[in-house]
Write a structure and sequence with these properties.
The complex is a heterotrimer. Chain A is built from 31 helices and 40 strands. Chain A is an alpha/beta fold. In chain A, the strands form 13 sheets. A 7-stranded mixed beta sheet of chain A has the order 7-6-18-17-16-8-9, with helices on both faces. In chain A, α8 crosses α19 and α12 packs parallel to α14. In chain C, 72% of the residues lie in helices and 0% in strands. Classes of the chains: A alpha/beta, B alpha+beta, C mainly alpha.
Chain lengths: 1041, 180, 450
């Protein structure tokens, strides 16, 4: 009937096949897989499996299944790789490392380089299987969530027995999803020479003659942005050994404009580090600092802490204030107290105008001399400038802060620096340090030059450490063309991608969790990257690759990294220091000091004038402008094969599995477009077809496209999803371009959107008000009135909950809609990926979703974000309607699903007013059954659900049980903050609190009822008595506007 | 008084109209016969009275069935929800009696209906695959247009000739001896 | 056989015996007409389609249908309610009209009861196959499981389980008890041994004894008395599946009465849909007379008016209660994604049936037939509106969705129609579709009164 019953047999069979491989290690392994592929077992395995699938009538399912099957055979490699953790000893994140206890997870501190800086991670490992990623609370980029109120300095390892840690740091979607990438069956698993499978030995022997005695002539190393001190040192050594070799860093999404802006202002490519903890008034010049980039987690925490109206000082609440101008809507802009949608050139104009108003010696923008700046109401500008100078919170050590988005041209960054200096913000809300990356150059220019050399035939050997330039290099450089001229092309990469496909050598790259390395955080803090598992496949790290170029092919990453730091380290005994560094996940005193800066205003003036001359008149051409942005869920395309991220609804558009051409309602009207209608976007003599998507808050005549889609040589998840917009992108204008043509076509492309309706229809769903209103009546603000008329009476006597009484509080002022909680929940609870078709049918499985509602006028709305897990209603409407008692209340008030009792009437889901229940309409877990490597991913504490059963948020009951066991061992009750749900642990702004409502002092209790005048129950009038309640969303608009 | 006819089941007479059957039945009863039975294609009103058949215990049976169904219906639900496996279902009390009413009602009807049908069959001694009358060729007409009266041989004052006399007196279409 | 039907009596000039001959001859002596094979063959193909759909459903899961979140219930439940409703006419005719001493029921009750059984059979199929894990349907049966678990009796679905179960069983008993004397009659009329044995077996040795008749009539009357509240209860309980729910459009007290009325409405419509062609095909116009059709039409009109009241009340209460969700639900029905369906509902169920006020319409079989079909469609639409349109827009706009039926949704529905017809064709071929003994009794009564 279904293939559920078949699954175990297949499983055993695969294990059996795997056993044939066991014993073979490393490079001998591939020959065995070739043998495997011919084995009769494998053939009738195919025979039996495939016809069953051919019968499928539901779109592409059968194709996917087939590919999965093929991949499954390769994935067998996993079985012999991951039997145990690396032979080298790594240091767990607990006070006293105990022997490994089956069933008890351990945490290891490591780090993930992302967007030119490191994020600190704690990785949960079950029997040496990494299954879940959390943030490292000690790391500057991942502020502490969960247990303690400290910003991460406190007793970070409040271990509650076992290896269990109850304090985590925030983590973002990419970090969460890294663990899925580790087990991705599509990862490259073979060294390839051209199309053929080869070996490391073959590679090394091929390498030697090319390096011998030509002191690096024609040798070029193309890396991604490097923040690893060890790798930097290695490359340094390489260029010393081969003087004529060159190292070029390139990422399609980089900080070059910011660095150039700093170079302009200070003569040095410094980086600005913002401190929102002291920012009373913030102006964001098109910067999505809350949710995008490696600093986002810290920014979001600091920013929201400054906005949180704690129950304590409720009588004189204070909040910072944010003005944002944006060229495309982002969560940051939506959270702003005042937001303007401007086209790219207008942002520069605004920056100039602000500088001018602050009395800096810049010529007022010509058209604003009349006081009118196109798109900016004069009153707005006045209020902004006034606030920048005068809006300060009591206490007085706060200041103003102007931040500029990386997409803005250097001149805007320079102006921002100048304004901050003018406002005396330097040293208060912003400091300048050396850049986190090892080589802060203009990466677009650097790549352009490299391509030049390639075209001239000066490059004989191009070694690419990661990256995917064939796919994502700016179109005008014609990288692929030039690449053909290079006689020897080597690509180290985790998947066999577009670039690998055009290289002579493809080397599989070890996953982050498979090899040793190190990385610098934004502020320079160094973290050592420890492997958590032996390489599943024959992958190598960057260090080993470079070492082989240095002729040190025998060295392992560990030796290289450790050796580097042995040299660097002075002072106390190395081993203890090393061990502590590994344990903590951060290296003490490695943060970079603030640099003294000397603002060169003259240079800014010159740049300004040249910008003027180039832009005067150019601004007013009628044609459309285009905005390029990294995709909120798959970034520059590197995460395209990650199902969790593909299925993650993108903030604001709520699209999944696709990119689109975002247009403002007005522009769409003008072009006669509606959603899903395909448009032809033409620019830089390239044209791309994209489905249109109408987004309120998008500036008129500006089309926004997201990078990273339209992969051609990626896994089966990425390939074919969305359209590739890199062909439209040039190195001259990588983020904005004018003179773009957008033409309507008769075609349509269906998009899978998870929220179709974004208006509250006058319902009191997200309740919100302003700081003014709260001040007016702190205990009963008028915007809360209606809600306190909830029905209190019931025919039935209430159930008593002595003992624990779990509840959750969600602060809508704090939520920035970053989606961290969604992926964290998916990872923690083994939630399947269902694919585009199923999402389009409305069957996504996320247990927590982030609802979003627009308000205000259509062209410049604000949005509120509302995370929605199960409400765990005390009078749950879902329970009485279940005919088999498959869902019922626990003694602690959890609304529980008993999967093996569920017959799937779906009545509970119908009767849930919050629609948080999810149903397995098809056999969504079949992917897991079919891929041995995905078996390893599953959280052993959580059931994998079968077809036809209902599921939903459990308040992470497995974590509650673990805490209970730990507490009972020590004969005590569970401490407040000891249970941290997955969503709570990930949340950078601590918008989610969880705990025992029977404990009068628990943090969650103090956020509820009479303690918190902003507390309300969603749809409370239905008398469902939800255990999850919300704090109303507060904003702090300028009364003058 | 004549000897009992061990080989004879009874004497059967066929009439062509309900009326004459009723008449025959009356006089048969007046003549003091008790062990005789009438057969008709459809229920003939007045006939049961004519043969002196009055009440039946069926209604009582059905009433009892209804009561049993009702009580068991509620009792079982109470036991299941409050005693056997008590669960907190959506904060409702264990004995949510209002929710138990529909099933109580259905159980009442179900058991009562079963009592009615099975009771009827039992009291009528059905099913009965064989019966001496089925041996009589013309008795087949009992389900289409024949109205029969059969005096049983084991009637205490059974006298074949006397019986025939009465039967014929009401111009029977035919009179047949029915063997055992 | 045409010669046979020539000198047949009519209810106007009753010949004593030949009524039974006439009715039984359809089964016993007359040959099977061609149209029967055609009709049965077609229905049988649809049954095969049903098997295919259900087979594929079990293989792949509910996902082959259009259901999703928020629309957890789709065609399966719509069809379920529709079929159950249709069933009601049978019981109503045989039980309620029996108690009301409506003798005109005699010529249609047997046939209507059969229709009830088959409709309930089709209905019962859906709750079973719409389960996510149909192989565990028995969790709903209260049996002592090793887990110690029992069903959850607060759930309307359990009430449903008992209501439908009881209803099916009682209807079967009622129908069978009514058949016993006729089975005996068939036994005695049939020439072939085999046929005699089969009918004889089911006749259980019925001899038409006066004592038996007395108890028989008592039992039948009691059953009628029990079935009458049952008719009312069954669709009330079905309506509670929704009324107990919290969803706007479900959570309303008007549902039980208006569901029952709707059931009678659709039930009589279906009886007419079937009776009109059958009576001409089998030349039974003199038994199922235009008066019968007229009466049924009147019942239909009455039920239709109650349904109309229900619709109007729903709108009024939504407005009067001032509940924003209720009112939004009504507006969504009127102007939302499915407004066309809602408009069609009003036309089919409220406007068109007003034609029944005219005697001419009530007495013209052809028009009545079309009207009945329209009402059948309308009642299906009503369930569609209630189940799906209420679900797709509920409380949180963020979770609003829509429902698009797939091929398999339609195939399963068509399949059950085939099942229904196939059973019906077998019934008219194998059993007397008009109660012989009641017919005789009635003719006798009329003769005596005359």
């Amino acid at each position: 009937m279904t293939n559920e019953p078949m699954a175990p047999r297949e499983g055993n069979e695969l294990v059996a096949l795997a056993r044939r491989l066991h014993g073979h290690r490393g490079r001998r392994y591939w020959r065995s897989l070739e043998e495997l592929a011919d084995s009769p077992q494998f053939h009738d395995y195919l025979q039996r499996e495939f016809p069953g699938q051919a019968a499928s009538l539901l779109g592409d399912v059968s194709r996917r299944r087939f590919l999965q099957l093929m991949a499954a055979s390769l994935a067998l490699a996993g079985l012999n790789g991951c039997r145990r953790q690396p032979a080298e000893s790594i240091v767990p994140y607990v006070r006293q490392p105990e022997p490994l206890v089956p069933g008890e997870p351990r945490y290891y501190a490591t780090a993930m380089p992302h967007d030119g800086a490191a994020m600190g991670l704690l990785v949960e490992s079950h029997m040496a299987r990494p299954t879940k990623v959390e943030g490292n609370p000690q790391h500057p980029a991942s502020p502490a969530t969960g247990a303690s109120n400290s910003s991460g300095q406190g007793d970070s390892t409040a271990a509650t027995g076992g290896g269990r840690v109850s304090e985590f740091g925030a983590s973002n979607t990419f970090a969460q999803a890294a663990v899925l990438a580790l087990y991705d069956p599509d990862r490259s698993q073979a060294i390839r020479r051209g199309r053929r499978i080869s070996t490391w030995d073959a590679f090394l022997t091929d390498l030697q003659p090319r390096l011998q005695g030509r002191d690096g002539r024609g040798l070029r190393i193309l890396t991604e942005t490097v923040t690893s001190p060890t790798l930097a040192a290695q490359l340094q050594a390489l260029t010393e050994k081969h003087p004529r070799a060159k190292w070029v860093p390139f990422d399609p999404v980089n900080h070059s404009h910011a660095r150039e802006g700093a170079r302009l202002a200070f003569g040095r490519p410094l980086q600005a580090i913002y401190d929102f903890r002291r920012a009373d008034i913030v102006l964001s010049l098109d910067d999505d600092f809350l949710t995008s980039g490696s600093g986002a987690l810290r920014h979001a925490r600091q920013f929201t802490e400054r906005r949180r109206v704690a129950a304590a000082d409720v009588n004189r609440p204070e909040m910072n204030r944010l003005y944002a101008v944006e060229t495309t809507p982002t969560p940051t802009g939506m959270k702003a107290d005042h937001r303007l949608a401007l086209d790219p050139t207008a942002v520069v104009q605004l920056a100039i105008a602000v500088a001018a108003r602050l009395g800096m010696n810049v010529p007022e923008p010509s058209d604003s001399s009349a006081g009118a700046l196109d798109g900016v109401p004069p009153s707005w500008l006045d209020a902004l400038v006034d606030d920048l100078q005068n809006y300060r919170l009591s206490g007085g050590e706060g200041g103003a802060l102007v931040v500029a988005g990386r997409w803005q041209p250097p001149i805007v960054h320079a102006l921002a620096h100048a304004i901050n200096e003018q406002l005396g913000s330097v040293g208060v809300t912003v400091r300048y340090t050396q850049a986190a990356e090892a080589q802060p150059v203009d990466q677009f220019a650097a790549l352009a030059q490299l391509v030049e050399e390639m075209r001239d035939g000066d490059v004989e050997m191009l070694v690419m450490l990661g990256g995917n330039p064939v796919f994502n290099a700016p179109a005008d450089l014609k990288f692929t063309e030039a690449l053909e001229k290079v006689p020897c092309r080597v690509h180290l990469s985790s998947e066999y991608d577009e670039t690998s496909n055009r290289c002579h050598w493809h080397l599989p790259r070890a996953h982050l969790f498979e090899s040793w390395s190190d990385a610098r955080a934004e502020d320079g803090t160094v973290s050592i990257i420890q492997p958590l598992i032996e390489p599943l496949y024959d992958g190598r790290g960057d260090h080993e690759a470079v070492a082989s170029l240095l002729g040190e092919a025998n060295k392992t990453s560990k030796e290289i990294v450790e050796a580097h730091w042995r040299n660097q380290h002075q002072g106390d005994e190395f081993n203890a220091w090393w061990r502590r560094t590994l344990h903590d996940g951060v290296m003490t005193e490695s943060a970079r000091p603030a640099e003294n800066t000397e603002l060169d205003f003259g240079a800014i003036r010159e740049a300004l004038d040249s910008w003027r001359s180039s832009h005067d008149g150019a601004g007013d051409d009628a044609s459309m402008q285009i905005v390029f942005r990294p995709d909120p869920t798959i970034w520059d395309g590197r995460f395209a094969n990650n199902g969790w991220l593909q299925e993650l609804p993108k903030p604001l558009s709520k699209l999944t599995w696709d990119n689109a051409a975002l247009l403002s309602p007005n522009t769409a009207e003008r072009l006669g477009l509606e959603n899903e209608q395909v448009v032809l976007v033409r620019h830089a003599d390239a044209e791309v077809e994209l489905p249109a998507w109408i987004l309120p808050g998008q500036p008129d005549n500006v089309v926004t496209v997201h990078l990273g889609y339209g992969r051609t040589h990626a896994g089966r998840i990425a390939t074919g999803a969305g359209s590739n917009v890199y062909p439209l992108r040039t190195s001259q204008s990588p983020w904005f371009a004018a003179g773009v043509e957008v033409r309507k076509t008769p075609k349509r492309r269906a998009l899978a959107c998870t929220q179709h309706h974004h208006l509250m229809e006058g319902r009191r769903l997200v309740v919100g008000g302003t700081l003014e209103q709260l001040r007016a009546s702190p205990s009963h603000p008028e915007f809360m009135e209606v809600l306190h008329g909830e029905p209190e009476e019931s025919f039935y006597p209430p159930h008593e909950y002595d003992g624990y009484k779990w509840g959750m509080a969600i602060d809508l002022s704090a939520c920035v809609g970053c989606n961290g909680c969604v992926v964290a929940c998916q990872a923690e609870n083994n939630i399947p990926v269902v694919g585009k078709e199923e999402v389009a049918r409305g069957r996504e499985m996320h247990w927590i979703r982030v609802d979003q509602y627009f308000s205000g006028e259509r062209d410049n709305p604000t949005a509120e974000f509302q995370p929605l897990p199960c409400m765990h209603c005390e009078l749950a409407p879902c329970e009485p309607v279940c005919p088999v008692a498959a869902t019922s209340h626990s003694s602690e008030g959890l609304n529980e699903m008993t999967y093996n009792r569920c017959v799937g009437t779906r009545y509970c889901a119908n009767n849930c007013p919050y629609k948080v229940r999810r149903f397995n309409y098809l056999d969504y877990s079949s992917d897991i059954q079919q891929h041995p490597s995905l078996h390893l991913l599953q959280n052993p504490d959580v059931t994998v659900r079968s077809r036809g059963v209902m599921e939903k948020c459990t308040y992470c009951v497995q974590r509650i049980s673990a805490a209970r066991i730990a507490a009972e061992k020590q004969d005590r009750s569970i401490r407040d903050g000891e249970v941290v749900t997955a969503c709570q642990a990930a949340c950078p702004t601590r918008a989610i609190e969880f705990g025992d409502l029977n404990d009068p002092n628990s943090r969650v209790t103090r956020l509820k009822g009479e303690h918190n005048p902003l507390d309300y129950a969603l749809l409370g009038e239905l008398n469902t008595r939800p255990r999850t309640t919300y704090s109303a969303a507060l904003r702090n608009p300028n009364p003058k506007l | 008084m004549s000897a009992p006819h061990t080989d004879l089941f009874g004497v059967l007479a066929r009439y062509d109209s309900p009326a004459s059957l009723i008449a025959a039945a009356r006089s048969m009863r007046e003549a003091g016969y008790r062990r005789f039975e009438c057969y008709s294609p459809f229920p003939v009103h007045g006939l049961p009275e004519a043969i002196g058949f009055r009440s039946s215990r069926l209604p009582t049976l059905v009433l009892l069935g209804g009561i049993v169904g009702c009580v068991v219906g509620y009792g079982f639900q109470y036991w299941v929800s409050a005693i056997a496996y008590p669960l907190n279902i959506g904060g409702r009390p264990l004995n949510s009696w209002p929710s138990f009413v529909p099933v109580m009602f259905e159980m009442t009807v179900l058991v009562a209906a079963l009592a009615a049908v099975l009771g009827m069959l039992a009291l009528n001694g059905l099913p009965r695959p064989h019966h001496p009358l089925f041996g009589v060729e013309s008795f087949a007409r009992a389900t289409r247009d024949g109205f029969f009266l059969c005096v049983l041989a084991d009637d205490p004052q059974f006298d074949k000739d006397a019986v025939r006399e009465i039967l014929v007196a009401h111009e029977a279409g035919e009179v047949i001896d029915v063997p055992q | 056989m045409s010669s046979h039907s020539a000198e047949l009596p009519t209810s106007e000039n009753p010949g004593d015996a030949t009524v039974g001959d006439r009715i039984s001859s359809i089964v016993l002596s007359r040959g099977t007409p061609l149209w029967w094979f055609a009709g049965f063959g077609l229905s049988f193909l649809l049954v095969m389609l049903l098997l295919a759909s259900v087979g594929y459903l079990f293989a792949r899961g509910i996902g082959i249908w259009g259901n999703n979140i928020p629309v957890g219930w789709g065609f399966a439940i719509v069809n379920f309610v529709w079929w159950v409703g249709i069933g009601h006419a049978g019981t109503l005719i045989s039980a309620v009209l029996l108690l009301c001493r409506q003798h005109w029921r005699t010529s249609i009750n047997r046939f209507a009861e059969a229709m009830t059984l088959f409709a309930v059979a089709c209905a019962g199929l859906f709750p079973l196959i719409h389960l996510g894990r149909p192989h565990y349907f028995y969790f709903m049966i209260p049996y002592p499981a090793t887990t110690g678990m029992w069903p959850q009796f607060r759930s309307p679905l359990m009430w449903d389980f008992f209501a439908i179960g009881t209803y099916a069983l009682v209807s079967l008993l009622f129908w069978y008890v009514g058949l016993i004397p006729d089975l005996a009659s068939m036994r005695d009329r049939s020439r072939k041994r085999f046929v005699q044995v089969v009918y004889g077996f089911f006749a259980m040795g019925w001899r038409g004894s006066a004592r038996h008749w007395r108890r028989y009539e008592q039992a039948y009357l009691l059953l009628g008395g029990l079935a009458t509240p049952l008719v009312v209860s069954v669709h009330s309980v079905v309506s509670l599946d929704f009324a107990v729910g919290i969803i706007p459009g479900w959570h309303t007290t008007v549902f039980p009465p208006y569901f029952v009325a709707g059931a009678v409405f659709s039930g009589f419509a279906m009886v007419l849909t079937l009776a009109i062609p059958l009576r001409s095909l089998f030349r039974l116009r003199d038994y199922v007379t235009d008066d019968h059709l007229d009466n049924m039409a009147k019942v239909m009109l009455t039920a239709g008016l109650i349904v109309a009241y229900g619709y109007v009340m729903e709108i009024f209460m939504a407005w009067y209660s001032g509940d924003e969700f209720e009112w939004a639900m009504i507006l969504n029905r009127m102007f939302g994604e499915y407004r066309a369906w809602y408009a069609a509902l009003w036309i089919c169920n409220i406007f068109v049936p007003q034609l029944l006020w005219f005697r001419a319409v009530r007495r013209s079989p052809a028009v009545l037939f079309v009207l009945a079909l329209v009402i059948n469609v309308g009642m299906w639409l009503e369930r569609f509106i209630i189940v799906i349109v209420s679900l797709h827009h509920d409380f949180l706009p963020s979770s609003w969705g829509s429902f698009t039926p797939t091929f398999w949704d339609w195939a399963t529905f068509a399949g059950t129609i085939g099942l229904f017809l196939a059973l019906l064709f077998l019934f008219v071929r194998l059993l007397p579709m008009i109660s012989i003994f009641e017919m005789q009794e009635q003719l006798d009564r009329e003769a005596n009164h005359a």
